[in-house]
Amino acid sequence: MNSRLMTLLGLAIGPVALLLVDALFTRQGAGGAFENLQQIVRSTGLTAWPIGVLIGHWYYPGPLWPVVKRPWNYVVLGAISLVVMLGTLPLGAVESASEFVSTIVFCGGLVAGALLWSMDNPPTHYDSRVMKLWPARG
Amino acid sequence: MRNPARPATGLFSPEPGTSRCRYDQRNAEMDESAKWESVAGLVAILSLIIAALVGGFAGELVKTRAGATVLMILAVVFVVAVIAIDLPAALDKTAGNTFSELLREGGTQTTIFPWTFAVSAGRWFHPGDKIDLFGIAGPLLLMGLTFVVVAGGDVLRRLGSGIPSWLVVLTGLLAGALLFPAGFSVEKP
Lengths: 138, 189
Hints:
The structure holds two protein chains of two kinds. Chain A is mainly α. In chain A, 60% of the residues lie in helices and 0% in strands. Chain A has helices at 3-26, 35-43, 48-59, 72-87, 101-116, 128-133. In chain A, helix 3 (48-59) runs parallel beside helix 5 (101-116) and helix 4 (72-87) packs antiparallel against helix 5 (101-116). Chain A is flat and about 50 Å long. By secondary structure, chain B is mostly helical. Chain B is globular. At the A-B interface, helix 1, helix 2, helix 3 and helix 5 of A face helix 1, helix 2, helix 3, helix 4 and helix 6 of B.
């Protein structure tokens, strides 16, 4: 699939997906269905973490390459994601957790997405500052 | 004069690697691409209709269980569709065609995408359940700020120095949280 087609599909589907998610996250009327969804969104990291990671992955200040080499960065990111998303689940029942949990987890996700899932590759040319972090092989 | 050792190649069986063959391959790829773009156009129209319905009736729909279920199903379908479309793009040999790569590249062309995502995230994940600093003026201010960021970003890009996407994201997060926060009323069990 070429970039033009993907852009077209993204523009076709993306805005509606965003609108639908926004409606579900924010417009839960009194006595409506899925009341727990708001609580999950605000009091746990189940939704805030992946959204933070994605935005960090897309818009990190760059060029930047993963601090853990590929493919281990995916393993580390997956492990941290599991810990955060499952670890914050019990907070759903904690009074006042909705005031700050999603904000903190979202910011953590931004940083994790930028540091562990950045799209650039480390430079191949010799750079003494870089080579200290990424020693040459072979 | 043609080399007699070489077999003759007909009009519809060009020799592999020749410019004729490459031309035919390119035509076939363009036909395939045009077909998919027609499909994408239909999806876009359907998507616009759903967007209009969601925008108009979401507030009412979520008040009933059936309506909320419809919204939930639609949301899941669309999110799954985005992932399902992105997967083959991530696995094929074409570089730079995944949504992630296009969004990052798009961030250098326009501020609309990082701004939209950041404002939404700020709106959903702001600290405090009941922050409302600007009241009804908030959304109006946000509309004005959106115009400034999008138009200003475009002008700056044409002048040769666009606004970095990460800066747009940070500003958008603050704008979404302060000017357009979702009012939550979480009922504790």
